[in-house]
Amino acid sequence: MTNLKNITKNAVKVSKSTRNLWVVRHGERVDKIDPNWHKTAPRGAWDDPPITDKGIQQAKEVGKRLQDEQIDYIFCSPFVRCLQTATAIVGELKTNAKLKLFVEPGFCETFCVTQFPPGCLTAKELVSNYELIDPEYEHFLKEFLPEDDEYVCERRIRKTIESILEKYTGNILIISHGSPIAAIHTVLGRKYRYVGYCGISKFVVTPTSESSPTNRENKNGPNDIHSKYHFKCSLAGDYSHLSDHTNLHTRELL
Predict the structure, then answer these.
(1) Is residue 129 a part of any domain in this protein?
(2) Record-annotated residues binding substrate (predicted)?
(3) Any domain includes 149
(4) Of 160, 155, 191, which Cα lies nearest the Cα of 176?
(5) Average pLDDT over residues 79-92
(6) Within a domain: residue 245?
(7) Staple partner for 232: which of 50, 113, 204, 254, CB 3.0–4.6 Å?
(8) How many domains does the chain have?
(9) CA 121 vs CA 37, 79, 100, 117, 192: distances in Å
């Protein structure tokens, strides 16, 4: 006779090992609305524009879409547009009282379209400007290396994703940029997807076993991320939460 108690126990065990990885692109950039913005960019950092009022609204709508989701950790690119987006999202979440932002350079914009080194604020400046940032967080990317094209950031993204999955359990939200998010789709979903402003992607992450088909059929060796986890993409650049679907910049390379 089947033991119902054991079934329930096993179901709980499975549910605890499965988690969600949410990925969101920043809101609308001011330099895409004002082409002359770069001439007066603070610090001369033409690669670090803020988001527009529309971008703030887009981010708030992301927060409302995610407000009932259990999110345990938020990782964010150090560029202003991502931090503003993250701050607006957290303001709408029901669990926002305990959430801090982990600023992770591994999720920076691809370096072929930024200044080099990137023009984002220093760690000290970021902490003084954004109270949600956790100053104790130790980021995984330790140095900036040149990237010749948007596809090169895939290696950086792969290492960063694997590092945070190894160290942090629970549900994760990542706020990043167009090309890095396309790289996330390539790394996790094996399919390139360039997502527009405040588009939401979701990957269900489940650990693999040594005998699983995913592990046996993996062609990149035992250290490949797919030998450790199975990723199911349940949302890929979803915009259904946005009130305005115009000019989301889903196809350009910046």
Answers:
(1) yes
(2) 81
(3) yes
(4) 160
(5) 98
(6) no
(7) 204
(8) 1
(9) 18, 7, 18, 11, 30
Q: The CATH number of the domain where 124 resides is what?
A: 3.40.50.1240
* SS (HEC) of 29-41: EHHHCCCCHHHHC
The pLDDT value given to residue 95: 76
Q: By the 8 A CB rule, do 55 and 27 touch?
A: yes
Q: Is residue 219 part of a domain?
A: yes
Domain of residue 64: give its range: 19-235
For residue 116, pLDDT over 80 is answered with yes
**What's the chain's average pLDDT?**
88
User: Is the model more confident about 4 or about 20?
Assistant: 20
Question: Which pTM value belongs to this model?
Answer: 0.88
Please check the confidence at residue 56 and state whether its pLDDT lies above 50: yes
Bind-site residues for substrate: 81
Q: Please choose, from the candidates 60, 1, 72, 4, the residue with its C-alpha nearest in 3D space to the C-alpha of residue 27.
A: 60
